[in-house]
Amino acid sequence: MKPEPLPGIVRVPVLFVNAYLVDVHPGVPNDGWMLVDTGLRGAGAIEIERAAARRYGRRRGPSAIVLTHGHFDHAGSARRLARRWNAPIFAHELELAYLTGRSDYPPPDPTVGGALAMMSRTFPHGGIDLRPHVLPVPADGIIPSVPGWRVIHTSGHTPGHVSLWRESDGMLLAGDALATMNLDSWTKTVTMPVELCWPPAPLTTDWNAARESVRRLAALGPRAIAAGHGVPFTEPHIAEALETFVETFRAPEHGRYVAHAVVADRGGIVELPPPVPDPVGRLLRGAAASAAVAALVMGVRARHSA
Q: Distance between CA atoms of 9 and 1, rounded to whole angstroms?
């Protein structure tokens, strides 16, 4: 039997984002498991339930659900799965405002450019309410009933973003602290060659913090990286690749949150940088309005000619 590329970890792709099933003890599914992220609403629950049933049986739910952050593509199915399995949800205390209905996330910034930025104009950014399931990650970073893993605060993409680290074998679940695919390229979004890239740009709201988080993860010396977007990075030269990535990490050349970060606290957003001009968005809105008018005119003509 071919060995698992990530011992005791199953990647569950949900369209363009990943969730992970994690054995409490690698290679021993009967000893329990945790779920890291939940994918998109609806589709995430379906794919995760199928994968969990294959590995752990239909009746065994996770001892915990850990959210790296609360964006729609990572927490979309959290409520449904927490109810399904009666499982607690853990998130960083700085993320709880967005997961208890107290605050929305900052709006996406499509002006950073690239494939994901173009699509981000349609992304939701509202907060969700996961009470009473959601709890803060313990201060020591250890999730109860899941020994061997430590939660590390890696802010930047969001204020309370976290990654998970297993020191025993150098396994890093990075969430959106970085990506292992180029989300800015239309071609690479489809072909998904493995490469270390910055976090999803249109949703990253503090680039200085994001850079420091990547530096902190590199200092751990991971031997494998599984991220929220892309396939796992398990190449032998991972240390050198990560070191080069840290040295060359740069924020986008322009964008709403590039020069001025979002200010947030435990209550959510405190201060947003002002919007920046979005000529592409203006053209798209104009085209959509023209198409709507044309459809209305055609409909009226069709009724009159009937």
A: 16
pTM over 0.85: yes
Q: Determine which helix (DSSP H) or strand (DSSP E) holds 21, and give its type and residue range.
A: strand 17-23
Residue 287 has pLDDT above 50, yes or no: no
Pick the CATH number of 9-275 from 3.40.50.1820, 3.60.15.10, 3.20.20.140, 1.10.10.10: 3.60.15.10
Q: pLDDT of 220-269, one tens digit each?
A: 999 999 999 999 999 888 989 999 999 999 999 999 999 999 999 999 99
* pLDDT for 2 beyond 80: no
Q: With beta carbons less than 8 A apart as the criterion, state whether 87 and 117 touch.
A: no
pLDDT given for residue 60 in this prediction:
92
Instruction: Confirm if 128 and 99 have CB atoms less than 8 A apart.
Output: yes
- Residue 27 burial (CB count, 10 A): 10
Q: What is the largest CA-CA distance in the chain?
A: 74
User: Taking 50 as the threshold, does the pLDDT of residue 292 lie above it?
Assistant: no
Question: Do the strands 89-91 and 134-136 form a parallel or antiparallel pair, or are they unpaired?
Answer: parallel
Specify the amino acid at residue 294.
A
Closest CA to 253 of 65, 109, 41: 109
How many helices (H) and strands (E) the chain has is answered by 9, 12
CA distance 115 to 154: 24
Burial of 18 (0-12, 13-18, 19+ CB in 10 A): buried
Return the structure tokens found at 174: 């990075």
CB 215 within 8 A of CB 198: no
- Report yes or no: 7 and 27 within 8 Å, Cβ to Cβ: yes
